[in-house]
Amino acid sequence: IFSILRNLEILDGNPVVFLHGGPGGGTDAWNRQFFDPKAYRIILFDQRGCGQSKPAFSLENNTTWHLVADIEKLREHLNVDKWVVFGGSWGSTLSLSYAEKHPSRVKALVLRGIFTLRRDELLFFYQEGSSWFFPDAFDKYVEPIPEAERGDLMSAYYRRLTGPDEEVQRRCAAAWSM
After folding, report:
1. Which of 53, 69, 117, 141 is most exposed, with the fewest beta carbons within 10 Å of its own?
2. What residues are paired with 85 via a beta bridge?
3. Is 31 strand, coil or helix?
4. CA torsion through residues 168, 61, 113, 117, sign
5. pTM for this prediction
6. Rounded Cα gap, residues 29 and 51, in angstroms
7. What is the pLDDT of residues 63-90, one digit of tens each?
């Protein structure tokens, strides 16, 4: 499994796996706030190419179904029979995909900030709409992309994230994930 599991401290309690947003995000201790640590075994999961997983920023063999398989391998590795699957933004889509593939392993499904990757959602989030609500953050997001390529930001980012220059990959991955 290329993904990283972090902050697994309480081994008894109702297991819950936290699936972060992104793609390209990651987990941190802040994500634990959604759960009572006295009641839940909190499993924070960095997806392939995200957070502390290795290799960093990698898109190789990094599809929804690869991630679903990683989540299932993690469940098996931790010897969890059934768990609560919690996802926000992109994590909500990943949660739904996991639950569809492994319904008998899902005790409950908690979704927040649902993002299903429809073309309209992608265009709103990555091309123009979010700029209306968060202009300062959007300026930082478009900063690595030359003005001439800003008509299709998703394609411009894809070229850079899959290009040969590791420094450009890191800079663009950081801007994409903010």
Report:
1. 117
2. 17, 109
3. helix
4. positive
5. 0.79
6. 12
7. 999 999 999 999 999 999 999 999 998 8
